[in-house]
Amino acid sequence: MEGACSSSSSSPFKDAEMEAQTPLTAVAEAFEELGRSWDCRSEELQVEPFVFACSHVAELFGCLGFAFKFAQIEYVSKVNGLLEASKLFDNLSNILDNDVKNDVVRKPGSHSRNLRRVRLGLDLLRTMFEQFLSSEEISPKEAASSAYAQVCAPFHTWAIRTAVGAGMCTLPTRDHLLLKLGDTG
Questions:
Q1: In DSSP terms, which residues pair with 44 in a beta bridge?
Q2: Which phi-psi region, left, alpha or beta, contains residue 3 (left: φ > 0; alpha: ψ -120 to 50)?
Q3: Helices assigned H by DSSP within the chain
């Protein structure tokens, strides 16, 4: 599809049905489906539909170019970890309960830590796009820098924050990002 992010930076989870959609449409539809599948009676969010919805978000990182390549790789890795967890656990609460019980919540590679990092990735993109869409005057660099400072910077070392700041200069222009996202309106 013209305007969509290239397949080289798309998610390995990409569903054939979502192939013809813009990245934003695919994400929106995946999360709407997640909302419909959520069992409100038990208030438990199932792991597999959550992972499916999150998998579509990886392409949004790819649309942001080289500056977010590491974030995309990290995000996909954590979503893959949760995909593996879906073979053992039905819902997100079970993952958290198991990791708390086994005292591995803070252990690198634990399912709960992967969940936390996926959530940070979701929060980063949500915050960035909220700011980006709030005004036509805000550039992707401004929106991404502000979102990073709010969401991720508090968890990163000075060296990582410095590298991220340098990488922000490589973000696409507003028009180029909208083209990559497939927004031709």
A1: 39
A2: left
A3: 23-37, 47-55, 58-63, 69-85, 92-101, 111-134, 140-151, 158-167, 174-180
CA distances from 67 to 37, 105, 145, 168 (A): 34, 29, 11, 6
**For residues 144-181, b (16+ Cβ closer than 10 Å) or e, as one string?**
bbebbeebbbeeeeeeebeebeebbeebbebeebbbbb
**Domain boundaries, given as residue ranges, for the chain:** 13-175
DSSP reduced 3-state for 176: helix
Which pTM was predicted? 0.82
User: CB atoms < 10 A from the CB of 33, how many?
Assistant: 13
Q: How far apart are CA 43 and CA 118, in angstroms?
A: 20
With respect to CATH, is domain 13-175 assigned 3.40.50.800?
no
- Average pLDDT by consecutive 10-residue portion of the chain (185 residues)? 42 48 85 79 81 92 87 94 94 94 94 95 95 92 95 93 90 91 69
Alpha-carbon gap, residue 8 to 90, rounded angstroms: 31
